[in-house]
From TrEMBL:
Keywords: Membrane, Mitochondrion, Mitochondrion inner membrane, Repeat, Transmembrane, Transmembrane helix, Transport. This is Mitochondrial adenine nucleotide transporter ADNT1. Belongs to the mitochondrial carrier (TC 2.A.29) family. Solcar repeats lie at residues 38-125, 141-229, 244-345.
Length: 354
């Protein structure tokens, strides 16, 4: 018995020494990560690359969506997706179609990292309490619990990277004729901080928080629930084993993205409009003159909803939905394809919901 206690003590001491040595190596900059840490890092890299590639492919549609969301109804320059893209090409050229994409891609990497990690930790925590409450050690997450885990992940990730999203919206909206130009993400951040204060970086945060709950939550919940149903039910012979084909996963992801963005879209419109409040050149950017600045003044989320619906009708809450919907399928398709390529290169198994 004493011998076993000695062995146990020696094992504990050895573990502590090993952890201390790893911590020392980490502080000194020597790479000695565990397999789990290395796997997480590889997954985050793959997610960041996939997000950047997929967003770049659909960047023109993303910019068109934002311009349709925030343009003034009394001086309309963009009458639709095709006309708007042609107008941007004619007035701003190829670079105009991708304006704001660099800032968007810079935001995607940390956003994806925080979102995926937060979802994983939230899922583990929720599953632990769910099993404790039900007394069933084999219980799995229900669609509602997945919705909750996805909502937590979305709120954390959105809050952590919101200032970058805010300035990305402004950079995307400005044109070559704007009286004042943001030269890039860091210039925009410093300018907003200097001229409008730190609180301005979080304008539109509340509707974003509310909107991210159904958007990210439904994305995770619908995707994983569809995937589980396909594996268990095996309808139409789509699934031959426990693995889904890339095409089937694309379909699941497209369905999840479509449901999530349709439900949350009005809040996205309000968020974009609130982000323009306080920008002294916003009216010139959106209308080409200074007559309509008052229409950009909102005292809060509810006021923005009320004024938008009263002056432009309920349909204004879905401005830009068509280009946003059109970009969902190719964006998710590219994300999956890039995931697979990076997974093979890095030698790590990746799941969209991991």
């Amino acid at each position: 018995m004493a011998s076993e206690d000695v062995k146990t003590s020696e094992s504990a001491v050895s573990t502590i020494v090993t952890l201390a040595e790893e911590a020392k190596l980490a502080r000194e900059g020597v790479k000695a990560p565990s397999y789990a840490v290395l796997s997480i890092c590889k997954s985050l890299v793959a997610g960041g690359v996939a997000g950047g590639v997929s967003r770049t492919v659909v960047a023109p549609l993303e910019r068109m969506k934002i311009l349709l969301q925030v343009q003034n109804p009394h001086n309309i320059k963009y009458n639709g997706t095709i006309q708007g893209l042609k107008y941007i090409w004619r007035t701003e050229g190829l670079r105009g179609l991708f304006k704001g994409n660099g800032t968007n891609c810079a935001r995607i990497v940390p956003n994806s990292a925080v979102k995926f990690f937060s979802y994983e930790q939230a899922s583990k925590g929720i599953l632990y309490f769910y099993r404790e409450k039900t007394g069933n050690e084999d219980a799995q997450l229900t669609p509602l619990l997945r919705l909750g885990a996805g909502a937590c992940a979305g709120i954390i990730a959105m809050s952590a990277t919101y200032p970058m999203d805010m300035v990305r919206g402004r950079i995307t909206v400005q044109t070559e004729k704007s009286p004042y130009q943001y030269r890039g993400m860091f210039h925009a951040l410093s300018t907003v901080l200097r001229e409008e204060g730190p609180r301005a970086l979080y304008k539109g945060w509340l509707p974003s928080v509310i909107g991210v709950i159904p958007y990210v939550g439904l994305n995770f919940a619908v995707y994983e629930s569809l995937k589980d149903w396909l594996i268990k039910a095996r309808p139409f012979g789509l699934v031959e084993d426990s693995e889904l084909s890339v095409t089937t996963r694309l379909a699941c992801g497209a369905a999840a993205g479509t449901v999530g963005q349709t439900v949350a879209y009005p809040l996205d419109v309000i968020r974009r409009r609130m982000q323009m409040v306080g920008w002294k050149d916003a009216s010139s950017v959106l209308t080409g003159d200074g007559r309509s600045k008052a229409s950009l003044e909102y005292t809060g989320m509810v006021d923005a909803f009320r004024k938008t619906v009263r002056h432009e009708g309920f349909g204004a809450l879905y401005k830009g939905l068509i280009p946003n919907s059109v970009k969902v399928v190719p964006s998710i398709a590219m994300a999956f394809v890039t995931y697979e390529v990076v997974k093979d290169i890095l030698g790590v198994e990746i799941r969209i919901s991991d």
